[in-house]
Design goal:
Length: about 375
């Protein structure tokens, strides 16, 4: 069985799907691994490192696509690349199956079996495969660093001979994996931090990191589903949230937003008026740009200025930390692959409680019920 890794082709993508450490383990499991030449250079691994780990190197991208039994990627390959894959080949990567279901069509047409890292259940057994959490950790960390370089103040309180410098005030909206890492990073830099989330359970985590938790009256609403994710809340709760955030924003130097509801547009938490009320020089980093943004004026993929307030909406911050992002992603993918590879052969047990639910498409059909629903909605609109 041949496992193939290509150089990623999306703009600004510097990550690689497998690093030499994981390849060594796969070769130990009798798999054949072939890497496109140069695939790992931006992530700190050159061809010689891959060869030393037991991989073969090739420059022939087309032949690699045609011969792959398992193609391991970071992002969904292009339509052209998918069209070259073998019928029945397996693809593993971030495929955006719920956000862009229509883009799964080439995989269905080609009869590729595709596993989406986003669909891996967040259970204890699958914890080592949780690539969403790995990337969110990096994104939350980097968002604070990016913001800190834009804010015209220092983050820590400093007492100097020239007087005392007060600490920066940072507000984090959405206290999931990315938000909590942003809180921890801003705290390490010495900022005074506040966190907000509609899940009341997030309050304890926010406080344990030394930040203040902003609470909104939820009116008895159940805001968390059985999987620990946020539910969409009522317009009344959203309105109260926006008022509270607008009030806090006036005294804040930096806001980082990471609020998401799976499969829905990101909740709109910062209105245009709230941005107008912010101090000149303050910064918003909106991490929800790929699902529409948490800030009303955010432009996905761009950095804009609104009356002296900088609003940044980066779409792939994880790729700006390629060494550690690739390391974590590769380990997640390796854990997942080890469920399927035995004695050098591929063995897909769809009854397995991780393999089954993470399969987006198989034998030209959408396998996952949420993917089926998203795909039929996309195709009928
Ligand atoms: P996410 O990316 O889906 O959302 C980010 C945050 O936005 C969440 O905390 C959510 O509550 C919040 N949010 C949604 N709507 C909001 C609104 N209107 N206002 C303010 N905040 C809003 O979430 P995530 O980071 O992927 O994590 C979601 C949950 O899953 C968390 O409880 C996390 O602890 C849990 N989790 C569990 C595991 C595991 O058990 N293996 C792994 C990772 C995450």
């Amino acid at each position: 069985m041949q496992i193939t890794v290509l150089k990623e082709t999306e703009q600004d993508e510097l990550r690689v799907a497998l690093i030499p450490e994981s390849i060594k383990k796969l070769v130990g499991m009798k798999a054949t691994v072939i890497i496109e030449s140069g695939a790992g250079v931006d992530s700190g691994a050159n061809d010689a490192d891959y060869q030393a780990a037991g991989a073969a190197i090739s420059n022939d991208r087309a032949a690699l696509l045609e011969s792959a039994d398992v193609l391991v990627a970071v992002n969904r390959p292009s339509e052209d690349a998918i069209a070259r894959m073998k019928k029945g080949a397996v693809l593993i990567g971030f495929l955006r199956p719920l956000d862009e279901p229509e883009k799964l069509m080439p995989l269905l047409d080609r009869g590729v079996t595709a596993f989406a890292m986003e669909l891996i259940p967040r259970t204890t057994r699958a914890q080592s495969m949780d690539a969403l959490s790995s990337m969110a950790t990096i994104v939350g960390y980097k968002a604070v660093l990016v913001a800190a370089t834009y804010v015209p103040r220092m983050f820590p309180m400093l007492t100097t001979a020239a007087g005392t410098v007060p600490p920066a005030k940072v507000l984090i909206l959405g206290a999931g994996v990315a938000g909590l890492q942003a809180i921890a990073t801003a705290r390490r830099l010495g900022a005074v931090v506040e966190g907000f989330d509609v899940r009341a359970a997030a309050g304890e985590a926010v406080r344990s990191l030394g930040a203040k938790f902003l609470e909104v009256d939820l009116g008895g609403l159940q805001t968390e589903d059985a999987g620990g994710y946020a539910r969409e809340v009522t317009e009344e709760v959203m309105e109260r949230s926006r008022e509270l955030i607008a009030k806090q924003a006036r005294q804040t130097d930096c806001i980082i937003t990471s609020a998401q509801v799976p499969g829905k547009r990101a909740p709109l938490l910062i209105t245009e008026e709230a941005v107008s009320g912010m101090k000149r020089g303050s910064v918003i980093v909106d991490l929800a740009g790929s699902t529409g943004g948490n800030c009303a004026v955010a432009k996905p993929g761009e950095t804009i200025d609104r009356d002296g307030v900088t609003i940044m909406t980066p779409l792939n911050l994880a790729a700006t930390v390629p060494v550690h992002a690739s390391q974590l992603y590769s380990r997640n993918v390796f854990s997942f692959l080890s469920l399927m590879v035995s004695d050098g052969e591929l063995n897909l047990d769809f009854n397995d409680d991780i393999i089954g639910p993470s399969c987006a498409v198989h034998q030209s059909e959408a396998k996952h019920p949420r993917v089926q629903a998203a795909l039929s909605a996309a195709l009928s609109s």
